[in-house]
């Protein structure tokens, strides 16, 4: 399909308007941000009341994403830090280590 730039732009505009494209995101380079260490942390909890507490972690700069998951852990945190010492400090601040 050989579409002109204006045709592609109009198609994308229409897909956004109709809800097919929900967001446009930037993929960041962790090393250039000074945070090359990426960690996924499983959080095990015993009840939803306990699970709500980690949701407060979204305000921490090192926490990129928080996902609820099924299985043995209740949540999965995506954390990006400078190094393993920063990760340990982050986990200690969360009381998750």
Q: Number of helical segments?
A: 3
Q: Major β-sheet, in short? A: 3 strands, antiparallel
Write down the overall geometry. elongated
The average pLDDT is 86
**Number of separate strands:** 3
Task: Explain the layout of strands and helices.
Layout: H1 5-17, E1 37-43, H2 48-55, E2 63-68, E3 75-81, H3 84-94
Antiparallel strand pairs: 1-3, 2-3
State the gist of this model.
By secondary structure, the protein is of the alpha+beta class. It is built from 3 helices and 3 strands.
Structure report:
- With 97 residues, the chain is of the alpha+beta class.
- Helix content is 33%, strand content 21%.
- It has a three-stranded antiparallel beta sheet with strand order 1-3-2.
- The termini are far apart.
What distinguishing features does this structure have?
3-stranded antiparallel beta sheet, single chain, 97 residues, 3 helices, alpha+beta
């Amino acid at each position: 399909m050989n579409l002109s730039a204006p045709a592609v732009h109009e198609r994308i505009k229409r897909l956004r308007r109709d809800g097919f494209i929900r967001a446009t995101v930037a993929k960041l380079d962790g090393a250039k941000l000074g945070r090359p260490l990426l960690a996924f942390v499983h959080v095990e909890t015993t009840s939803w009341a306990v699970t709500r507490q980690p949701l407060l972690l979204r305000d921490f700069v090192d926490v990129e994403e928080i996902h609820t998951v099924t299985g043995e852990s209740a949540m999965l945190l995506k954390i990006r830090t400078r190094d393993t010492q920063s990760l340990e400090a982050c986990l200690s601040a969360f009381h998750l280590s």
